[in-house]
């Protein structure tokens, strides 16, 4: 596992560098404070789990280029979702990744605009990144399309609203899964398939990557819910216990902490099996799946 | 001019049909009320000026296909901007195009999410539309990229924030122009160049279309400011006199109503000249420029 961890550390660093290059390339001409707010959001500490998934899927499927910018483009969408999630009209959170949230630093209007602007920014960055990998234009189009699909009303943005609507009223397990498959799952699934697509993976392999992404994405959200109950604010770098405070339905509330952990573990197994069947279960892909549920923040 | 008006009427109808097809294709699986809110926003009455500009530029540059879906994709971005502009945290408006604004019907959270989701939706629709015109993948990528650029922090979204920041404090003419070149101008410019690009226009012609779009876009905003002072709420389909109520800096305030009209007319002339030099000044392109300033709503 230590080789894999070294690879993650390297991937993490190259993704951060790529995010810095995006900021330098695209934000210099953006009016302040929006440009600064986007930069702050992009360059904060993050696990870069979605980006690492792009890299790992790319390498698993035989890609040999530098996919760091492609990985970073997915992180732009993820960073956007955090900016908006933290807004007073959403989860109303003051801390994220150990720092004040974007709207606490730059104000609500700038944070809202910054988040908004990050969706088209991600589309531009993904297209540039795919071009830099010398992919053909049809694949570039498919990758940008997949990222936009995962970001849109049927994916993350739609999921955020469902999540908001769910606050303060009890949800059943299937309703909760529906929310999280859209809100968290769509982008994690896209990370896996976009990595594979950039490496020219076959339709069968893309299908397996999608299955893996969907399962790991849901496990990730379950782990998030568990951590909100079991971890401290210091460990999380964001306020712990928010779900209870917001009266959100969660997996631990529905299944108990142990039940939720069991469900997450089963999902990881399911995702890894799907990859194994098509020869894509590399140590890195298995490691990310495990980290998803074994993390402490 | 009556041939041109008949062509606009036809274009208007085909754009509306294309918007309806987008809604049918993309919104059925979107969670309510977001899907319904997007549909409401897309299918409201509108001048479709940006869409007509795509069509006219496409035909001026020799395009012979059906560019209605491409035109409609631009209107998706425009519709998004209206949804967010009307929100309480922005202009706080109750009426738009003669109907209650989206947040008045569906609530603030749904309106916010709907607007957010319309940017990636527009990217998907533009790519589909460009593909249906059998454009090569590089051109499709350039068109989607141009639309995202116009939508992003350097364009419309950045301009909206500048606009918000400008409320309640006096702006000089150059600052006001900077806001409007971003907020209104970027998308109108993109409409002109995207139409040209889809028809395979040369770099010189694209440059002229950009000049025309920038000039007409600014004239459009000046005319908007003038109408806010001179027209009634009934004529506008939205609340008149909002600029004064919001203490916004406007062209009539800085130049007087007549001075603003003179400036708009000069911009129209400038834009048309740029097109004339490269053989693109068709009656439709000239007509749209004139309508921009001669409209009553």
How many beta-strand elements of chain A?
Answer: 2
Main sheet overview of chain A: 2 strands, antiparallel
Radius of gyration of chain A, in Å, reads 18 Å
H/E order of the elements of chain A?
Answer: HHHHEEHHHHHHHHHH
Q: Structural class of the helices, strands and pairings of chain A?
A: mainly alpha
Low-confidence stretches of chain A: none
Separate helix tally of chain A: 14
The CATH architecture of chain A comes to Orthogonal Bundle
Helix content of chain A: over 70%
- What is the CATH superfamily label of chain A? Farnesyl Diphosphate Synthase
Spatial order of the strands forming the largest sheet of chain A: 1-2
**Which strand-content bin applies to the residues of chain A?**
under 5%
Largest interface: A-B, 46 and 46 residues
Q: How would you describe what is shown here?
A:
The structure is a homodimer of 297-residue chains. Chain A is an all-alpha fold and 297 residues long. Chain A has a single domain, classed as Farnesyl Diphosphate Synthase (Orthogonal Bundle), CATH 1.10.600.10. Chain A has helices spanning 2-26, 34-43, 49-60, 68-86, 102-106, 108-132, 137-151, 156-166, 173-198, 203-230, 233-236, 242-245, 251-276, 283-294; strands at residues 95-96, 99-100. In chain A, strands 1-2 form a two-stranded antiparallel ribbon. In chain A, α4 (68-86) packs antiparallel against α9 and α10 packs antiparallel against α13. The longest helix of chain A is centred in the last third of the chain and has 28 residues, at 203-230. The radius of gyration of chain A is 18 Å and the shape is globular. Chain A starts with a helix and ends with a helix. At the A-B interface, α2, α6, α7 and α8 of A face α2, α6, α7 and α8 of B.
């Amino acid at each position: 596992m230590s080789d894999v961890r070294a690879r993650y550390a390297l991937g993490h660093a190259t993704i951060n560098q790529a995010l810095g290059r995006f900021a330098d390339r695209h934000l210099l001409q953006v009016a302040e404070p929006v440009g600064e707010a986007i930069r702050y959001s992009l360059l904060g500490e993050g696990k870069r789990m979605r980006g690492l998934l792009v890299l790992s899927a790319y390498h698993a499927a035989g890609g040999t280029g530098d996919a760091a910018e492609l990985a970073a483009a997915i992180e732009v969408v993820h960073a956007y979702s955090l900016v908006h999630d933290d807004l007073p009209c959403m989860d109303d959170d003051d801390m994220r990744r150990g720092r004040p949230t974007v709207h606490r630093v730059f104000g609500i209007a700038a944070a809202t605009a910054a988040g908004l602007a990050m969706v088209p920014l991600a589309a531009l960055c993904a297209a540039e990144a795919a071009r830099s990998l010398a992919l053909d234009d049809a694949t570039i189009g498919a990758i940008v399309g997949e990222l936009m699909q995962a970001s849109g009303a049927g994916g993350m943005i739609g999921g955020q609203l469902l999540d908001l609507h769910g606050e303060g009223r009890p949800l059943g397990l299937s309703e909760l899964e529906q929310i999280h498959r859209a809100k968290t799952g769509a982008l994690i699934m896209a990370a896996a398939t976009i990595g594979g697509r950039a490496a020219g993976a076959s339709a069968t392999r893309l299908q397996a990557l999608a299955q893996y992404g969907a399962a790991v994405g849901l496990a990730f959200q379950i782990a998030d819910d568990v951590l909100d109950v079991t971890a401290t604010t210091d460990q999380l770098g964001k306020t712990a216990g928010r779900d209870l405070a917001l009266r959100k339905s969660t997996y631990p509330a529905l299944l108990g902490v142990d039940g939720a952990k069991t469900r997450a573990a089963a999902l990881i197994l399911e995702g890894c099996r799907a990859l194994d069947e098509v020869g894509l279960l590399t140590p890195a892909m298995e490691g990310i799946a495990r980290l998803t549920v074994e993390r402490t923040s």
